[in-house]
Specification:
Blueprint: H1 2-9, H2 14-23, H3 26-42, H4 51-69, H5 90-106, H6 109-138, H7 140-146, H8 169-175, H9 178-197
Length: about 210
């Protein structure tokens, strides 16, 4: 999968080619992202005042992912409604909110730096690849839609853009796999809550 993505984006040799194979790997990006959520829980600092706000931010991010995933019929239909009227990659926006929330809740500088590095390495490459792939599949339809829609961070927001429309809960939770992701994130959220509220003596191993 990573090799195919690299070949589509242009093969480079040597060290940069190796780096491309890492940053274009979808499996590696997803695995590290999920691992970082658990890292946030494990290294959370006790007594942080940001735990509630951070977990609320993460929950909002996952709700947005669930909402966005209900519109996706991969590579067969270009999703342009609902969250796709706000950004081209709403799943990535959801991921940004999730990891930002867990990072705030953990209140750990080193974990925060790791999360920032993760986004800088993997997400620009992911956005570039997905845009090029979708343009190749949907051609003028994609170009017309994407012309005024930002990639990940919306430049405007109207509640009317978030109309439910063709949203499908089965498509989101089962076919696109948001149910197990939600359960995993919920488990990590509870873990982080316990760690952040544990007495100092029980955190000696941290």
């Amino acid at each position: 999968m990573a090799e195919d993505r690299v070949s589509r984006m242009g093969n480079r040799s040597g060290l940069m080619g190796w780096f491309d194979r890492i940053r274009f790997s979808e499996i590696l990006r997803q695995a590290i992202g999920l691992l970082l959520v658990a890292v946030c829980a494990y290294f959370a600092r006790p007594g942080s005042a940001l735990v509630v706000w951070g977990l609320l931010c993460a929950a909002l991010g996952q709700l947005f992912r669930i909402y966005a995933a209900g519109y996706i019929v991969k590579n067969r239909k270009l999703a342009t409604g609902g969250p796709y009227a706000l950004v081209r990659h709403p799943l990535y926006l959801g991921n940004l909110l999730i990891l930002t929330g867990f990072t705030l809740a953990a209140a750990n500088l080193y974990v925060g730096l790791a999360v920032i590095l993760f986004f800088l390495i993997w997400y620009p490459a992911a956005v570039t690849y997905e845009d090029k792939k979708l343009e190749g599949i949907f051609a003028d339809e994609w170009r017309t839609w994407s012309q005024h829609i930002r990639a990940v961070i919306p430049w405007r927001f109207h509640w009317n853009d978030l109309r439910v429309g063709d949203w499908d809960i089965y498509q989101s939770l089962i076919r696109n796999g948001e149910l197990p992701i939600t359960l995993y994130l919920g488990s990590c959220g509870m873990w982080l809550w316990v760690v952040s509220h544990a007495p100092p003596a029980s955190l000696a191993g941290h």
